[in-house]
Amino acid sequence: MNTTIKAKDTFHASMRKYARLKRFFERFSADPDFMNNLKLNFNETLEKNHIKIDREDVRYLFEKENSETPEAVIKMWNIVQNKQRWVEQFYLNDCLPSKASMLSWRKRQIERQRYDLGPFFTNTNIHSSLAVELSQGCSVGCWFCALSPDSLKNNYSHETNQEEWIRFIQIMNSFLGNAIKSTFLYWATEPFDNPYYEKFCIDLYNETGVFPPTTTAVAHKDIDRIKQFLKLSSDYGTWLNRFSLTSLGIMRKVHKNYTEEELAEVECLPLNKKANYAYGNSGNFRERTKADPNLLAEQDEKLRTAPWHHKDSDYNSSEDYANGSICCVSGFLVNMVSRKIQLISPTTATDEWPLGYIIFDEAKFENIEELQIILNSWEERFFKSEMDLDDFVAFYPWIHTRFTENEVILKGRFNQKKQFSRIDDPVITKLIELITNTKSSFKEIQAHALEQFDISLIDSKKAINTLFSYGFISEK
Ligand code: SF4
């Protein structure tokens, strides 16, 4: 655990150290007029936007040419790298499901995401195992929302449901093991719509030892409540709070009402249309881009300026929009008001999966006993490392197969591909041909492999399950 604590402390220390500069870059990345205004009147522009730095800190912005990476950029990069180290240590090492069966399912979903959503999405995603909604609907109604909630209808009451809530965490804890630590308590909801949000977080902490991260879009509204929450969550050792700043006016209000120190460990995400941030193309935003493709082209242009995109030939030679989902859960999504549970994992949003995640199954539970039954039945159906004989075997529709004289290539989005040599992998290459051409059940494909290529049942089973473990074979 020491490595984990160290990683979190290092991340927080870098945020605190560069809190003022961080605020500067929040405005810089959100406001296209900011730079011009700085050039016209540096001090007045900073004052108007509640930013306190010295001109010297960002001198590079006013210099004609500089081949070295500026110090201010290195400092911001330091925060990003420390965050990534923490994410890798905590979410990818400490928060793994204890059941080997769920672990292999999760691994397979992550493998698939490489081909479906690209390496950057996959490597930076937290791949949480549980998200819980404590409201039905959302009061905010962001036009770009990738998750398209209805308007706010109901909240889950802590007063009447605390006992059930604790039982819920315990059941999920015993099912997930360490993966329970990756839980967070919002999805297509605004956490602070629920008047008891803080109490639910404390219960989660008491049961699991982890206070969940929070993202809110109302930091500018109930400022006293949010300030108290920042203090509370920091006392309980949360790793992150995040403010979604949906307009420049909201950013100014937030920067005015919270000091740099108060926001030092808060990630302020500029989400106004002209900000550097590119929206996830699912939900409401995808509906807009279907009607207005220029909207997507504008966002795509922003993505293509990111170093991870333009420096990677796989990305920069691909036409695909590299932000097709904002989903960060490969596991359970639960709404406590409607008592609905879904098993989900990220995918590029399509008409089949418009919210940017696959829903493998969903069910309602009347009480916690029913929840346990659902978990057990899904464990048997989905959390397996090998396919069943009657399972239908087909590649995901976005996988392209290419057959050359020497190789068979399976190619996903963003030019992500896996190559199989016909000489070194004769069985698997034959099986890829059969799966592409036959679209049959597991046992039928085995029979074809035996009949046409004299491949034994043991060898064909192994080959199909290898392709399954790479995440190429559709599970829906
Ligand atoms: S982005 Fe968040 S706050 Fe905005 S509508 Fe969606 S769920 Fe609500």
Q: What is the CA-CA span between the terminal residues?
A: 37 Å
Percentage of residues in DSSP E strands: 5-15%
**Gyration radius over CA:** 24 Å
- CATH architecture group name of the largest domain: Alpha-Beta Barrel
Number of strands: 12
Number of domains: 3
What does the largest sheet look like? 4 strands, mixed
Low-confidence stretches: none
| CATH topology term of the largest domain | TIM Barrel
Distinct ligands: iron/sulfur cluster
Percent of residues in helices comes to 40-55%
Specify the number of helices. Answer: 19
Average residue pLDDT: 96
CATH class bucket of the largest domain: Alpha Beta
Morphology:
globular
Q: Spatial order of the strands in the main sheet?
A: 1-7-8-9
Structural class: alpha/beta
Features:
12% strand, 4-stranded mixed β-sheet, binds iron/sulfur cluster, 12 strands, 3-stranded parallel β-sheet, alpha/beta, 3 domains, 476 residues, TIM Barrel
Written overview of the protein:
- The chain is α/β, with parallel strands linked by helices and 476 residues long.
- The protein has three domains: 1-94, no CATH class; 97-381, Alpha-Beta Barrel (TIM Barrel); 400-469.
- It has helices spanning 2-17, 19-30, 34-40, 42-48, 71-94, 100-116, 119-124, 158-176, 197-208, 223-235, 248-257, 283-291, 293-303, 307-310, 313-316, 368-382, 426-438, 442-453, 457-469; strands spanning 128-133, 135-136, 154-155, 214-216, 241-245, 266-270, 329-335, 340-346, 357-364, 400-403, 407-411, 417-421.
- It has a four-stranded mixed sheet.
- Strand 5 (241-245), helix 11 and strand 6 (266-270) form a beta-alpha-beta unit.
- The model has no long low-confidence stretch (mean pLDDT 96).
- Iron/sulfur cluster binds next to loops.
